[in-house]
Amino acid sequence: MAGAAARGPLPCLPLPLPCLLLLLLLLLPAASAEPELRFRPPAEDPVRLFTEPELARYDGHQEGQPIYLAVKGVVFDVTSGKEFYGKGAPYNALAGKDSTRGVAKMSLDPADLTHDTTGLTEEELKSLDDIFNNVYKAKYPIVGYTSRRILNEDGSPNLDFKPEDQPHFSIKDEF
């Protein structure tokens, strides 16, 4: 040590500006843009499969219960539109079920409040896709899917189910 003191201070070499900035970034504590939370916010509820009886529980008739409706087998939480879908509201007939056909035909006729799209015209199918994408997917969160999309009537897995084979269904457009 005595020899080092006798030699004097070490010479200071000039550092290039990028190196100096990197050194400062490494030495300074990182400032967080968001305040640190003492708790973690709850994760979003996972999507789930709904049978017809399960979906029917969310028809807007029970106070304090969410309101769900399905279009093209996708279940949406339409509770924020309670004035449209709640008890006594103009579109309450659509709630609690897969109302794909009714949405396509813009019909509240009970016979049309079904998932079945058999026999719909090209215009009705285009209307269905427009409403599905520009109203439901744009406005309401997806909470699940109807079980009939991937299960057989007896509840067993439909091994032949392929989303790309479903009429007017594109899985890439649903996420």
Describe the structure.
- Helices cover 29% and strands 9% of the residues.
- The protein has 175 residues and is of the alpha+beta class.
- The radius of gyration is 29 Å and the shape is globular.
The strand line-up of the biggest sheet is 1-4-3-2
**What fraction, in percent, of the residue positions are helical?**
25-40%
In terms of per-residue confidence, which ranges show pLDDT below 50 for 5 or more consecutive residues?
39-43
Order of helices and strands: HHEHEEHHHE
* Rg, Cα atoms, Å: 29 Å
Strand proportion, as a percent range, falls in 5-15%
* Beta strand count: 4
Structural class by helix and strand composition: alpha+beta
Number of helices: 6
Largest sheet entry: 4 strands, mixed
What form results from the Cα inertia axes? globular
| Overall mean confidence score, pLDDT | 78
What key phrases describe this protein's structure?
four-stranded mixed β-sheet; 175 residues; 4 strands; globular; alpha+beta; single chain
How is the topology of this model organized?
Blueprint: H1 2-7, H2 17-27, E1 48-50, H3 52-56, E2 68-71, E3 74-77, H4 82-85, H5 100-105, H6 122-139, E4 142-146
